[in-house]
Amino acid sequence: MPRNLFNLIVACTALLLVAGCFCRSDRAAGDVPVEDDPASSQRDITSGKRRKNGDGGDFRVELFDVGNSRYKRIDDEIKSEKPLEKAADQLNGALILPHDITLRAKDCGEQNAFYDPRDRSVTMCYELMERFYQTFRVAGDNESVAYGKMFDAVRFVFLHEIGHALIDAYSLPVTGGEEDAADRLSAFVNLRELGDEGVRAVFAAADAFQIEAKFGKTKERNLADEHLLQERRFYNSLCMIYGSNAEKYENIVTDGYLPKERAVRCRNEYQRTVQSWMTLLEPWRKN
Ligand SMILES: [Zn+2]
After folding, report:
1. 17: pLDDT confidence band, cut at 50, 70 and 90?
2. Could you report the per-residue pLDDT of 4-14, keeping only the tens digit for each?
3. Ligand 1: distance of its center to the CA of 22 in Å?
4. N or C: more exposed end of the chain, with fewer CB within 10 A?
5. What's the gap in Å between 284 CA and the centre of ligand 1?
6. DSSP string for 252-271
């Protein structure tokens, strides 16, 4: 059973939840995306012509020494279990990239996870993991459960950021909100490709969204933010889970977590998400 380094924080800290997003730095104001070379930046994503460019890059992991000793346990686990390296291997086996994309997990000095188009990197901050841990602890989970759900929720956020990275790398069209598109990529990849671990990731993210919606202060609700409100992200996550297998997850509806009025549309919603993302990624799939 894991012992936690965050007991002190949980014991003495009121929730510092910000009912907002997990990737405030992505596409920050003033950011200018780096231009791809002309051969790899064609916008006709349905032509398949990009295949002629070949595989121009890989997901690559960049490691750092931990700066704040209170994150040493997380850092040790990240470096021993190598979740980023495993994710990079899976993604590199599945997708052609026009350029490298760097994956980082580190202490950043802020509760965040973000894709930065300037250096084409995804950064997962230990502070955000700590925030998830606090969120689950405050809601009543014991140390062990909260620690496990922290890693589950982070997997959802990681694939959300990969969604931003792919939209940028392939210049994918997004006709709705990019934040919602990234959430849905994460949900469908987790639910469709990653088995029980993926299902746990979407449930944990939904749980975190709900808790943050419940405990977040009204004044912190930022309706101008490009992310959906946590309540919406909670219901959308549940809808994707239910839509992926209505029989298996019928308790989401029968137990009253997801209203029937929404649930009846979730199967189509899930299938449309899968179809849309698979179509967009088809020119870039290796197999
Ligand atoms: Zn985002």
Report:
1. very low
2. 433 433 333 33
3. 7
4. C
5. 22
6. HHHTTSS-HHHHTTHHHHHH
Instruction: Kindly give the distance from the C-alpha atom of residue 164 to the centroid of ligand 1, in angstroms, as a whole number.
Output: 7
pLDDT tens string 49-82: 444 446 889 999 999 999 999 999 999 999 999 9
How many Å lie between the centroid of ligand 1 and the Cα of residue 227? 7
For residue 248, give the DSSP letter.
Answer: T
Q: Are 102 and 9 in contact (CB under 8 A)?
A: no
For residue 287, report the distance from its CA to the centre of ligand 1, in Å.
27
CA of 12 from ligand 1 middle (Å) equals 30
Rounded distance, CA 234 to CA 228, Å? 10
- Name the residue with higher pLDDT: 19 or 145: 145
pTM above 0.90, yes or no: no
| C-alpha of residue 247 to centroid of ligand 1, in Å | 31
Task: Give me the phi and psi of 102, to 5 degrees please.
Answer: -90, 135
Distance 163 CA to ligand 1 centre (A): 8
CA–CA dist 270, 277 (Å, integer) = 11
Mean per-residue pLDDT of the chain: 84
CA of 229 relative to ligand 1 center, distance in Å: 12
